[in-house]
Amino acid sequence: MYRSVRWLAVLLILTGCRQTRSEAGRDERPDLATRTGSADLEDNEASLEFEAPRLIPAIRAQINEIEDPKGATEGNLTAFKNGVGTLVNAMEADLNRVGVTDSGYFYVLSDSVMREIGGGSGDVAALPPEKARQAAAQVKRLIGIYEARMRSVPN
Q: Alpha helices, DSSP H only, in the chain?
């Protein structure tokens, strides 16, 4: 009989001291090192992570390759085409996420870029190097517009 009373007391103590996961980190600040993105996001909501900033360096590297006449290989052009499609979608999602209104330039330019390069998962048409270079200049402007709009977002 005493054993069952002891086990019951131990179970009650353990149950009373238990803390659920949802309560464990409620009052703590999120660790910035575990999140992707910029340290500028420190004061923003912990779950808000931007997609485009991590894609921009790769696109800029691809633009540099395409601008070099020897670097405009079929593989680089295909990677550029696919990367730009992903980047445009990410930038649009980020701008929508923070509620930045567009004066018309960003969406018009992004549509123009996507029509120019023929983006889309089912499209396998080759992208000529001269067309890719023109699109690269537009992508640079698009990235500039995106970065300016994101800087205008209050923290």
A: 2-17, 21-24, 56-67, 74-98, 105-117, 129-151
User: Which residues contact residue 55 at a Cβ distance below 8 angstroms, ignoring those fewer than 6 apart?
Assistant: 83, 86, 87, 90
Which of 22, 128, 123 minimizes the C-alpha distance to 73? 128
- In the block, residue with structure tokens 């004066």: 103
Residue-wise pLDDT for 82-112, tens only, equals 899 999 999 999 988 888 777 678 888 888 8
Integer Cα distance of 123 and 126 in angstroms: 9
- CA 9 to chain CA centroid, nearest Å: 51
The angle, 0 to 180 degrees and rounded to 10, between the axes of the packed helices 105-117 and 74-98 is 160
124 pLDDT higher than 60: no
Q: Are 37 and 49 in contact (CB under 8 A)?
A: yes
> Measured between alpha carbons, how far is 53 from 40 in angstroms, rounded to an integer?
12
> 40: which DSSP letter?
G
Quick: pLDDT tens for 12-22: 666 666 555 55
